[in-house]
């Protein structure tokens, strides 16, 4: 019995050691495809001189007045002759009106004047009610 098992194992070993299809020994170096790099041709850049305004000017303003949310603010700003003049105002959470007036230029930099006017009002107190306790139905 052991002899038959030994012979079967030897036959399997010889069969698996046989060279397979196209498994010949080769001593040549593997052939690789040549490495090529595609380099794009340089593109000539078109340089155009943009027109420059030596004395730019602008002006804008906006405002919000929403009584349902209590959002009240506005802003204005103008630039003329290299000097920026502007102001903005808002209602702070305590009820005061804050108004900031500013000026900015290359010589003096940014200068702001802040005014706070109006009367403060008490912030509304949030009332937290205790949850209603509902007893579960008794088990029968």
UniProtKB/TrEMBL annotation:
Q: Which InterPro entries match?
A: CHIT_BIND_RR_consensus (IPR031311), Insect_cuticle (IPR000618), Insect_Cuticle_Struc_Prot (IPR051217)
Output the Gene Ontology terms for molecular function.
structural constituent of cuticle
Pfam families to which the protein is assigned, alphabetical: Chitin_bind_4
**GO cellular component terms attached to this protein's record:** extracellular matrix; extracellular space
Keywords associated with the record: Cuticle, Signal
Signal peptide: which range, if any? 1-17
Source domain of life: Eukaryota
Know the name of this protein? Answer: Cuticle protein
Species, as recorded: Leptidea sinapis
């Amino acid at each position: 019995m052991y002899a038959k098992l030994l012979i079967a194992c030897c036959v399997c070993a010889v069969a698996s050691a046989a060279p397979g299809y196209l498994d010949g020994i080769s001593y040549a170096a593997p052939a690789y495809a040549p490495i090529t790099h595609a380099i794009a041709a340089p593109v000539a850049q078109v340089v155009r001189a943009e027109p420059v305004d030596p004395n730019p000017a602008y002006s804008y303003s906006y405002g919000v007045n929403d009584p349902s949310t209590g959002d009240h603010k506005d802003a204005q700003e103008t630039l003329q002759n290299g000097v920026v003049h502007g102001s903005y105002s808002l209602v702070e959470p305590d009820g005061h009106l804050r108004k900031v007036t500013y000026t900015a230029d290359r010589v003096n930099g940014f200068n702001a004047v802040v005014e706070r006017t109006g009367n403060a009002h008490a912030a509304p107190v949030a009332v937290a009610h205790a949850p209603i306790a509902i007893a579960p139905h008794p088990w029968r």
